[in-house]
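Protein folds are increasingly written down as discrete tokens. With that in mind, we are printing a sequence and the tokens encoding its fold.
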Amino acid sequence: MYTQVPLIIELDIIYANHAIITSFVNDKEIVSNTNIFMPTDEYIGGIVSIHIRPIRWNHNGYGCEEAYTFHQRIEKLPYMPIVEKYRGHWTAQ
């Protein structure tokens, strides 16, 4: 897992209408209610965990949560000349 590279959580929800996804670094909540987490330099060396709470029309999802922890620590994205050359083109849209 590298800084500046988004972690995107994709789910197939079967018995729920949607899910609230919360990202943590070293057990500290970073972002909630989004499936994208973008590690920055301040999180280098940290461990990412994801908490998923499924929501149904008749249930708030508490008691049905799932949590996952990634084994790899966040690292600084290595220098890659091709990425640096085109970074402005990719982010300009």
